[in-house]
Structure formats: structure tokens, C-alpha cells
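user: Kindly work through both lines:
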Amino acid sequence: DANNLGLFFTATSLNDENQPIEVELIPDGAQTPVNDDNKEHYVQLMINFRFNTECKKQLDSFIDGFNTIIKRHEIQMFNAQELEMLICGIPKIDINDMIKNVEIHAPYSLEHPLIKKFFAMLRKWNHATLGKLLWFVTGSAELPIGGFKELKNKGITIQIEKGNDIDCTPEAHTCFQTLVIPEYPSLDLMERMFFIALDENI
């Protein structure tokens, strides 16, 4: 319920002298309260302000600098995942580290047959395919120094949950680092479904 939060269509930012200022997100935003009817519009305006308007000067400077080193036409052939891998390198994913630091929800467990098949499958994959899986689950093709243990220490634990329909591909919720795997009856089917999901994600 947003009716009683005391929010208005404004955002606090800093001016060129590093002093806090109030910015109206819409005309007369300081007089327009956020309520249940307009809260989604407020959130979209705030996201746009924080990620586009507020940092436009810095982003423009970064882009100008980047383009002096690499021309745009030279990287247009790459999608976001491929470009991140080119810049950061393909991650070396330690499956044993992953096993120790993932959270598996019932009815799955480390001893569940499907989970055993899942990690056996990952052990066969090359680094590039594992990088695609990491991107699929977390939205990043890079692990911090310290691997999955460091992710866990930062409160970012990869979760594995059971899906219902074996005719569907695995799903990922990157906001929660959650991988949803249906209980596929065979390793071949699971691997085929994963490859479909990873290719569609690119």
C-alpha cells in the first residue's frame, strides 16, 4: 500500500556544488503524492532518473572515452554477454565450490538423483558453456575473487528449486539468483533443455 508512505513525485540528487537538491519527476511532482494508482509510474520514473538522467554526464563521458579506444561498429556484432566475456574473460567455474555454496530447496537436495545428474552434467561442460549458465542464473558472466563462496559471503547465494513441467526448459530468476529445474527423467533430456534455455538467453 503506497497511500501512506509520504512519497511525492520527486527525487533527491546533488547539484554541481555537491549540494542536495530536490528534482521533480513530473510537472508539479512536489505536489503529487504517490498512491496505489500511480505507484508503478513513480517507480518507472525513478528508475529512469537514477539510471539515465542523473548519471547521463558520467555515462556520456564513459562512452566518449570508450569510443576513442574501440569504435562502435567493431563491437556491434556482439551481444551483451559476449562483450562481457571478451572484456572480463571466460570465468573458471569450480564445480566443487559451487556444490558447497549453493542452496538447494526441497524436495531437491544434494543427494537427490536429479541434482547429482545436474552436477555431473556441469562437470562435462567447457568454461564457455559454464559461463553461459552463470550469466543465465546471475545476469553476469563473472565471478568475484573467491568464487561462489565469496558470493555467498556477500549474501548472494545461488538457489536451486524444483520446476513442474518436464516439457519446459529450466528457468532462472536473476534478481534472486534462482535456477528452477524440472525433474527431468534423464540426463540427456535435461542437457538438451538446458542448451535450449542457454541459447535462447543469448
